[in-house]
## 1
Amino acid sequence: MTKRSASTHKDGNVTTSGHKVSQNGKSVEKQQDEDDKKVSLGKKVTLVRGISIIIGTIIGAGIFIAPKGILKHSGSVGMSLLVWILCGVLSLFGALSYAELGTCIKKSGGHYTYILEAFGPQMAFIRLWADLIAIRPAAMAVISLAFGQYILEPLFMPCEIPPLAVKLATAIGITSVMYLNSMSVTWTARIQILLTCSKLLAIGIIIVPGMYQLFKGETRNFENAFELNNVKLSGMPLAFYSGMYAYTGWFYLNFLTEEVDNPERTVPLAICISMAIVTCCYVLTNVAYFTVMSAEELLASEAVAVTFAEKLLGNFSVAVPVFVALSCYGSMNGCLFALSRMFYVASREGQLPEVLSMIHVRKHTPLAAVLILYPMTMLQLFVGDIYSLLNFMSFLRWLFIGVVVLGLIYLRYTKPDLPRPFKVPLFIPIIFCFTCFFMVFLSLYSDPVNTGIGFAISLTGLPAYYIFIHFNQRPKWLQRALNSFNRTLQILLVVVPAEQ
């Protein structure tokens, strides 16, 4: 009979015959299994997955299709490249501000959570309301329409694609993204990494031949790059507006803070690495475009990446629409993954139906929170005027992002003792906050009608807040209806409250 050896480790666990046993008698492996079986979201977002979420949501169809907005308003090749760089730096300032918020307020939910912490439930609900009824369904429908258009293009080339075919392909794309996010957090994150790699590959296919042309001496389009004859100061704010829109998406990791492994380290690191990669990709892609196209040719092109590929890559240009479609799909997946957590947190705070904060008993996904956007998105896809909604979507986005960063500055003075593992110099949020409110002012000046509609949609959140949230004494029939709704959905979706 052999003796069983035992030793005690610094962490208080005892190893017996090679198995670690905790002081309460349970093995560490068994404890881990129990944690995995617990009905909760868990911490499954690693550094690589965090980077893939940020890059995957920032890089959509824009860089492949229409970088001409910046060139048009900046007036010259050199100024357009400078705008791309400066917009990358400004976006980094915003991302760093959010990194501080994400490390001192360790709750998921992004904008909603930070406004709630800084300015209270009423302002947070107005943001949530605008997102739920207009902004997010419209944004999801538009990026999905781009997916439907480009996934079908190789099949119909050179003919025009029937609009109904585009909408059907779009509906299939939306449904598949919803299904993926409903079934598995792990697989959603893995697919996001794969799609992000495909985006970077597509950008590499543009950058590498472009740089080769540049080193061969194709520099004629860069001659007099900073010629100021066509530069108008009045157009520069619009150029920056377009550039900042192209970088939008750096805040999505903050929607998942509770699921991030070691958020104090992972969130700032993922944000910095992602913004460096995206800024380099955007600037080098635009340099590559100019090695093949003059400024006039780029402004005349409807899809810049396709024109570039036709000029330089020959038959391989057929693959470009497929890469654009995959890029759009990655943005759809990343956005839905993040946004569902905002609805999950809002439900947990009592501002949305209780069922939205419940987890599927086997899949461990916030199933109801994932599906909430599906009916509104499909409705807008087939019957709504999506593009009119998008005209003021940018205004509302920058208004509330500015409010969030203003909240960071406000919290520095109202809660100076709040632990801040990552703290940015104060000038960074101040500069970014000023930029956001300047873009809001620009919207008010350039498009007062759509800006007014945006304000009106936001303000409908006020009566909704007082009717559904503020008044504790709801009519009994309404309370019974809400309880019945929650129970019915809970049974249908097989979801339960998250275990702590």
Note: The two ends are 44 Å apart (CA to CA).
## 2
Amino acid sequence: MKVYVTLCLSLCVCLHKALAESDSDAILEDKDVLVLTKSNFERALKRHNQLLVHFYAPLSGQSLGSILEFREAAGTLKEAESDVRLGGVDVKKEKDLAASLNITIIPSLRLYLSGDKNNPVYCPVLKSSASILTWLKRRRGPSADIISHLTQLEKFIGGDELVVLGLFKDLEEGIVKVFYETAADIADLPFGVTGHDEIFSKYEISGDTVLLIRKSKPDKQFEMGSSTVKKDLVQFIRLYEMELVTEYNGMTASKILNSEVLDHFLLFINKTDKGFEEIYHAFKSTAGKLRGKVLFVMIDVSESRNGRVMEYFRVRSEEAPQVRMVNLSDNVQYQLPSDQFDAHTLLEFCLSYLDGKAKPKLQSEPIPENWDTQPVKELVGMNFEKVAFNHNNNVIVLFYAQWSSESRALFPLWEELAEHFSEKDDVIVAKIDIMANDVNLHLGEKNPSIKLFPAVYSERVVPYSGKRKLKPIITFMKKEIEKAMKDKAKEEERRQKYVNEQKAAVKEEL
């Protein structure tokens, strides 16, 4: 009996250990995406023969959209019981892992095959779940549809607004391979390829050529030669995939945002106004001279569905027509310093921007009455620098977005903070609606954000990244204020020393 009990206990212990080891080997998932870390990355590579990994920074504006689309693609693949798994690496948390894998661009996608972490397949950053799935599908099979007769061609070119058609004499060897490689990487456009004589005749083409077909009609063509490489074809497609002027709407929004051209010239205009045709013609004429350098986008202010984009750029319908230049890498806006919209004025403004001579547009709400009489000071663009960079005051600022519930949730905390420092004349607690007011400051993070402007002679900014609770913020402020006092004392000592040296030099001359 004792032997039996002992065997049972031993079996239970072994089973418990096995289950514990199994649990420890498990890789956590977030919305069907494997959460990859330094400790489990090698294990994930061994378990999954094909592992597509998304390297992202959660607070990065460029990463946010791709995270959601990546999750959707992961769910689709898991539901289809695909042998491809998707994993994510938060590079802010996993800095050592990112460094060991030589991750320098965020966000980025890499496909790891057969457990080999040293030779991944580099994937273009695909910002829609459909394009991620298409990219994976094109890697497994033909990257382009084979068009073998005219009826099939008509169906292919009529399926989407823009399609890419390759016409090649040899569909197996030679320059056609460049076309297949390009099709595999550009997953957001349909690609077809043909060697059919009737299709060559239809488009009056004799040599290896790539056609961009827009709304079922040939738009642009690219002749392929023996020296053509993938980069050449990709540049051609990306340059001409957008029309000279693209109207912003639900269908074009993602293509505009994902364009390789980062400088966007935006025309806000009412299409029903009398002067629309004349201004649009000038805008389009300018676009033709700057294709590939600037993306020209028209936004109809009379379209109610464009309200969000107008709110983002702070343009009211009654202010139209209006043009803005914006670079998507920093979102700094530049406004045409004129009320003339002729082709010459538009071109001169674009050229001055490209030459780095245009001045950023800084927008501000009016300074509120009694803005400084409340415990929490309400700043706007016009008084921000004067208050924040005052070397006599330590100013802590909440940068918020009025529409954000996360921002508004911090307002009571800010009132408590102001109350705590109410007896301190050299401490100012303030907030600013950063969506309604521009500041000449790189925030570098999503809102709401908190920054301290210490009482020093230099324009110093100290970001706060701790817990958003009263005690941690007070501790942070006291530490930085003490440091600022020491730095300021040293600066004053240096200044006094300089003054004394100057006085001594003058005295010696006399």
Note: The CA atoms of residues 5 and 11 lie 10 Å apart.
## 3
Amino acid sequence: MFTRPVRKVKRFLPVDAWLERYPTKERKNNKKTAWMDLLETYISRSHIHGLYLLFLPTMRRRMRFLWSLALICACSVLIYVSYLLGERYHSKQFKTIVAHSHASIHHIAFPAVIICNRNRLNWSRLPEVKLRYNITLAQEELFERILTAYDGLSFHQFNVFDTLQGEYLDDLNHLNFTQIVTELSWRCDEILADCHWQTASRDCCRMFRPRRLPLGLCLAFNELEQRRGTDTGINTGLLLRLQLHEDSHAPGNMGQKGFLLNVVEPDVWFGFDIEVMPHYRTNVAVTAVYHYFDDSTLSLPSRWRRCVMDYEQDSEHFQTLEGQKYMLENCQAECQQRYLMRYCNCTLDLFYPPSEYPACRLKDLPCLSSHNHLLQNFEQVGEQPYVHREESGLLCECLHNCKSLTLVTDMRKSVQQPWPQANSSRLRNTWLNVYFKKPSMLVYKTNLIYTWVDLIVSFGGICQLCLGCSIISLIEFIFFALFKVPQFYWKRARGELDTTIRA
């Protein structure tokens, strides 16, 4: 049986397809000419220096290579410097400058002046307190010993409760000693007299109100009103007479007599103590330094700029006393409460505003005494390699407010009465004068060294230096690369260029 061999069928391509698959030399030259024409239209209008020299038909190969090398070097410098600029912008470094060397002091409120008697309690009211709380004869000795400890109590002196170690305290544990101490504390009419504000005589009890402090119960001026001082110099601020009343002090407290003074910003809970001694006229001159972070820094997290704004309640560093504005000192006071809770599971409400922390009862006071050595100092984060401490302190990650005021006090004392007279009363008056020292203050501003505006300006400068181009040049290049070149190949794929060539 014979089979007929299968013959291969020859297919004939159309002319257009044949030319597309097997282009002639003339066709190749035409395509190359079309591409060069397109490239020339961009190069002739481009503002990138040196780019057109790479495509000049008359340019020799050696010169084309040298210009290519020069352009590569320029691009390398551009990329490297742009990287350095980006690193500089990303590092977010700050600088602090003097924004105003003579800003008016009238822009800020007069300081809050807080006065505390070193002997916190008026012992003359003790008999009526005993009657009110039904203290028996068997309880009197312990009751007086507890109040004597409260008479000299402050946050760093919990050792006054050492005498309660090992004592049976259940019989008096039901008493609210914070309330009892409040009833025994000095009233404004008992220790303050002859008050003057801005050279005008005022009622002391209308100007001062009771105030809790880590020193106990004290009297505060200008905490809520935030009056502004109009004049500067001695006797232009707050002038008053302090009455010691040594006869009404606790007989068991043999500590130093006198007063403690805090001069702080009105929103600050406590500050550094200033000792005011009897028989002296104490003049306290106050100068102010204001420091703020400008708006360019507020977009950064608080851990970068190392300060906290009042509205940043979600910040990890936002910790303040309940109901109080965020300030460094308020954060530290809140930290004190947390350490009291850690060691004794309670806080001494006599020192702080009302909060949700449980208040220490009488049976908790020996615990405070036993941990007094751990509550003496604040410890900064990272200071362990540089500061030697026998005991650890309070580790509080508290930052300044981004708009903070620092009050600098200059104290001058002059002797009023070198010694008491033979038949004089033991009232022992002391004059206190607090005033603004000068009508101006320093204002510091912290801002970013390198902002996004500086980044754009620097990038534009390096682009001009290396390539001589601008934003418009980049837009032209992007338009050519993303629109003109794809359009050229799209037309060629559809045969529009071939038609043009054949025509």
Note: The two ends are 57 Å apart (CA to CA).
## 4
Amino acid sequence: MMLRNSRSVCALPRQINFFANRQQHTNKAAVADTMEKFDLPKRLQGSTPSVWNEYIALAMQYKPLNLGQGFPDDAAPEYVTKALVDIGNDENPLLHQYTRGNGHLRLVQALGKLYSGLVGRELNPLHDILVTSGAYEALYSTIMGHVDVGEEVIIIEPFFDCYEPMVKMAGGVPRFIPLQVRKKDGPISSADWVLDDSELEKMFNKKTKMIILNTPHNPTGKVFHRHELERIAELCRKWNVLCVSDEVYEWLVFDGVEHVRICTLPGMWDRTITIGSAGKTFSVTGWKIGWAYGPHHLIRNLQMVHQNSVYTCPTPLQEGVARSFELELTRMGKPESYFLSLPRELQPKRDFMAKFLTEAGMSPTIPEGGYFMIADWTALGKKLDLSTEADKYRDYKFTKWMTKNMGLQGIPPSAFYSEPNKHLGEDFVRYCFIKKQENLDKAAELLKKLN
């Protein structure tokens, strides 16, 4: 009896092992099934974390001088921030409660007055304007509200990185056309980045639903000139295509260049949605208030998406933006207007950045608009050992090496290209010049060390 019991006891660990292994295998299979079932939907598969998530984490770790992200590091206009203080102390309790879903009444009225004058037609504030959670949500609501499965959307490269994934989320098919630098020697202007006309014409067909235009352009600083916009408008009319005009940098133009709103060209009002941003207009990017305007038959689609996602934006911030616009409307065209004073203050900073990047051995593109500058860094890269960086693309290697070793952060422009065309951005880096002069001076000193 004792022998049989001993054998039974000896066999017990093997039995436990068998059942444990079996249970482990079952658990792994269950986990695999669960992970597969709860994976990203097919329409989102292939999406990757944005460059901003990666580079913000990098900045937090290495604490470089951050010329990568597009935010001002100086104070916003006093009247803008004071408006928010006054709202906080206002006796009207409704300023801290829900407001009208499609836009706070005071704000849409101010926007209606502003843009009616700028586009030369009377906008209905209640029907032709939607206030959104930043221009980002305006883009999302526009694309989700208009693009159906299988419809094609033309995206000009380089592009703000959310355009492509938003089109895919809607089930659309992004089609890409790159700006090409037509000038190889001497100083390069953003006007030298152009679309190939025959290639542009080939992009349009019966499946084309939309073209996304960004002017002034991020990251090149290109301001599309009237003849370029007229060509895009001609093709939109020919193929009955919707134009989404991302104009968040509309007030930031230099050298006397004219910002032309494509919705004002013949036959374009009824097929254009224009997007703007309070963050860019008043240097308060953290407020996240944006808008879209256009004919009601187009804007109503955005309103449907908006009401079923964001629904309404923060009342105090909308009130603050409204009060700021009301003041600016009294200053339109006058030297004290922030719309004129900001680009006047930024142009010397732009020129200073171009100078110190050139002295460092880079070849900058001088932007006609916006507050970014891209520069060809490859001549400088010959002095650096980038083998320590494992990234696939050279601009990622360069920007990460600079962040870690020189304490200066830029953004890799290949992030703004489609996968087949990322090589077009590898020779460049993007820097932001809406920064304190002392920080631009510091950037210049850091780059001098490389020489």
Note: The first strand starts at residue 65 and ends at 66.
